[in-house]
Amino acid sequence: MDASLDGVLTVFCDLDGTLYLGDELIPGALEFLERCEARGIRRFFLSNNSSRSVEQYLAKLHGLGIPAEAADIMLSTHDLIAWLTDEGVSDTYLVGTEGMRTMLEGAGIETRAEAPEYVVLGYDTEITYDKLATASIHLHAGVPLVASHPDIVCPSPAGVSGEVIGIPDSGAYMALFEATTGVRPVHVCGKPNAGMLLHKVVELGLEPSECA
After folding, report:
1. N or C: which end of the chain has fewer CB within 10 A?
2. What is the spatial distance between Cα 206 and Cα 44, in angstroms, rounded to a whole number?
3. What residues contact 34, with CB distance under 8 A and at least 6 apart?
4. What whole-number distance in Å separates Cα of residue 121 and Cα of residue 145?
5. Paired residues of 12 in beta bridges
6. CATH of 3-75+193-210, one of 3.90.550.10, 3.40.50.300, 3.40.50.2020, 3.40.50.1000
7. Which of 111, 83, 117 has the alpha carbon at shortest distance from 95?
């Protein structure tokens, strides 16, 4: 493991299903992070899961014994906010959690607009029929759709005897909206889009070869 980190200055670590699964650390995850710290390698924690806010992720990481600060967390929601900001969008209708709502509204983006410029879709673990119906009405009226990430399923240890199964994620909701309205997103943020990482690589003044 140490040899594979030769020349690496920054590591971008995926979270769900990589460092932990549910409320359990993946074996070896903490040891890997400790080796990175011992070698002076900067760590960022990366997730497409837009259901949680930065504060909620920090609480989870701290609860698992992983030291982290807000600046260490990179979410698909950050990528989405950057895209909406670049497009000059301020009025949206959000299909997403309250945690996601706080991040968008904290960036000055309205999430309950009566005449939205975009329907914004995230991994909504608080989904209701009213949200689905209202979003569908906007989509039928010609409002474009943008999504935080493309993942169809989120890994969960909720299967029989604790095996890992897939539960519906943002991509599954995309399929639902396409089936009911014929609308597909005009843009999908998050991994595997390179933009989710490249802005941080540029900000840190790094070469891609110095990152893992």
Report:
1. N
2. 14
3. none
4. 7
5. 44
6. 3.40.50.1000
7. 111
CB atoms closer than 10 angstroms to residue 83: 18
Tally of CB atoms within 10 A around 112: 12
- Collect all residues with Cβ–Cβ distance below 8 Å to 111 and sequence separation of at least 6: 92, 93, 94, 96, 101, 104, 105, 120
Torsion, Cα 109 115 121 124, to 10 degrees, reads 90
pLDDT in tens, the chain (212 residues): 455 778 899 999 999 888 998 888 999 999 999 999 999 999 999 999 999 999 999 999 999 999 999 999 999 999 999 999 999 999 999 999 999 999 999 999 999 999 999 999 999 999 999 999 999 999 999 999 999 999 999 988 888 887 888 999 999 999 999 999 999 999 999 998 887 888 788 888 988 889 98
> Can you tell me the distance from the alpha carbon of 192 to that of 23, in angstroms, rounded to the nearest whole number?
25
Q: Where are the alpha helices (DSSP H) in 87-187?
A: 98-106, 129-140, 170-181
Tell the CATH topology of 77-188. Answer: Rossmann fold (3.40.50)
- Per the document, the length of the chain is 212
